[in-house]
Design a protein that fits this description.
209 residues, alpha+beta, three-stranded antiparallel β-sheet, three-stranded mixed β-sheet, 8 strands, 43% helix
Length: 209
């Protein structure tokens, strides 16, 4: 009788031990899956943000003039040029400035901060017209380099006057909403309540009430 009782106790202990080991394995597996999901989601978010880019074309007329005093300041020499600037610009976001982290316990991706859009590239093409050289003060390769530099700065100064920055901000809003849908598809949540458009100090996206 005692041997039967011992067998039953042994079986019960074996079942309990097996269930305990299985539970530990399942919890560990679930944790690994959650951590893998968070890593994949963070990668997807960065991939989506990398695609946010607005392209703009500028056509500007730029007048370049440089003068120099000659012969003990007795007279001034000048060189001038009319420059047609055709430039292609790309506005986007610096991914290193995006601060986010995953909260695996709450299955939440938290976007803490999103940078302002910035100029990623400018590719100016210059055409020179009406070049006027002075007898003692002609254009040199160094001048052409300086003109290119000034032309690039001229386009940079024009960008804030355009709608490109606002378009980039709107693209970011659309991207964040798309990211939210991706996150929700696998049972996670995206928290972007901390995001602000800094110059307006209001949420980047208004949550529906």
């Amino acid at each position: 009788m005692e041997s039967v009782f011992e067998i039953i106790i042994g079986l019960l202990l074996g079942v309990i031990l097996t269930y305990w080991i299985y539970s530990l394995f399942r919890i560990k597996k679930r944790k690994q899956l959650t951590e893998h999901q968070s890593t994949v989601l963070l990668q997807k978010i960065r991939s989506v943000c990398k695609l946010i880019s607005v392209e703009g074309d500028f056509a500007e007329i730029y007048r370049y003039e440089n003068s120099k005093e000659q012969f003990l300041n007795l007279f001034t020499s000048r060189k001038k040029a009319l420059v047609i600037i055709n430039a292609k610009t790309h506005i986007g976001y610096n991914l290193s400035k995006i601060h986010m982290y995953s909260d695996t316990n709450r299955k939440t991706i938290v976007l803490e901060s999103f940078p302002q859009p910035e100029v990623l590239s400018i590719s100016p093409e210059l055409e020179f017209y009406d070049i006027k050289n002075d007898l003692f003060y002609a254009f040199t390769p160094k001048d052409l380099t300086e003109v290119t530099k000034q032309a690039r700065q001229h386009i940079l100064d024009k960008i804030p006057e355009s709608v490109l920055m606002d378009q980039a901000r709107n693209e970011a809003k659309e991207a964040i909403l798309m990211i939210e849908k991706i996150v929700e598809m696998i049972g996670w949540r995206l928290d972007y309540s901390a995001l602000e458009i800094y110059e307006y100090k209001k949420p980047i996206i208004e949550k529906p009430r």
